[in-house]
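Data availability (excerpt). All sequences and predicted token strings are deposited with the supplementary files. A representative entry, ATP-grasp domain-containing protein, is shown inline so that the format can be inspected without opening the archive.
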Amino acid sequence: MPQLYLVVDDLSQWTHTLPGEAVISFETYLTEHPIKGQKKTRIINLCNTDQYLSTGYYCSLLAEARGHKVLPPANTLTDLSSQQLTLVQAAEVLEDLDQKDLTRTDDGYAFRIYFGRTALPQLKMLARRLFERFPCPILEVRLAFLPGVPASAAPAEVVAPVDAGGDTIIVDSWQIRSVHAVAYAELDAQEMPEFVSSLEKFTQSVWRKPRSSKASRWDMAILVNPKEKLPPSDAKALKKMERAAQKMGFAVEFIGPQDYARLGEFDALFIRETTAIDHHTYRFARKAEIEGLVVMDDPTSILRCCNKVFLQDAFTYNDVPTPLTRIVSSSDDASLDTLESVFSYPIVLKIPNSAFSVGVMKAEDRTMLKKMLSELLVKSALILAQEYLYTEFDWRVGVLNNRLLFACRYFMAKGHWQIYNHGEDRIGSGGWETLPTYEVPKAVLDAALKSAKIIGDGLYGIDIKQQGNKVYVIEVNDNPSLEEGVEDAFIGDELYMQIMSEFARRLENRGR
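Structure token line:
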């Protein structure tokens, strides 16, 4: 089990007895650590962090240099030192605040968050989300309600929305005025019970969670979401992943969207939830990368794969064969005329960030084209128009670190032109057939490898259509489906062993 240390500025200020926790001064941590032979060390930094080069800042910086997992990480302290940057990020979490629960007062609210917890029940969700965004032991937050205040009269630090005309900025809701890190030494006697209680709950449920009795070399988090309707992996596949990871020396824990602040516990993150940019999956990937975890798929791959405008441009410039495609930004008559001069009906329309056939439409005539384009352009400034290529199935080729992993045929849903048919009551899908890669046409494999290399060296699923001897790359998926009895139907458990071997190889290369 990892050794946990609480680091404070002055040891004489610490008056609590917490079983199993070692409390040391910053001076001790500076001069006596790292301890030889003590590989897995966790640090909770409770020092003063009010300045860029304070003891608290150096504590987190040294912890990261020594390979220790630390709360808060140095990048969090850097973010908090810039209130303008902090407030831009903090404004994004206000969507979880039920503003009806807050009584409007002239003074607003000033409250402290201890390890993601607050005593104010109406602010518990906001506290958790702020802790996820700024993982810091103690945060001080100020909220203010500014009803209908013009921008010229609003406080300079308030992040305010711009109206459609771009001329006047009006603030008319609760706003986060400030978010600051607080040192342990700044707490008064009345705050200590809540701080100690929150610390105990945090260390017991998160940092001190018991591991398997069998010693493991690394810790892996697998991000899943039980509420997801179309998860990329089913329960049986996830179990096989866990067994494969354990064989490669990993202790595995399945985590969910609520575990953002826990990423510092792990050495690797495997995302098994459908990814998107404006979504917690991307934030998990980004935070994991910053904290030095091996993460699959990485944030760069998510950025590139989740936007079909990028994919189309990248494919064009790298001579990857694709269907005839145009990027559309308007549904006016001139744009429709241009599309009709390029395509014959039907025309396929796609939102750039569509997944599992959601946000993909087929226009059979000009009336449908105008209607569908108008609907989609409300959701995205750019829409892709593509020629319709009828095939009975799509190829899905799995690639890991630019090596072939699996190959499947996904057949169209019955009576539908896509693999997935999103009906009113249920989601239908077609059948599949998994083949050894040596039975797949060379042109399909070559196109898959070429397109995957454009994205990176992660785990990808490349969708390809084939008509005769011609192949067309439709997209590259950064989070491909891995389901028991489907993608693993030919090589079985070896599919999961290869993935976990790649995680282990990357950690080995980092000296972990």
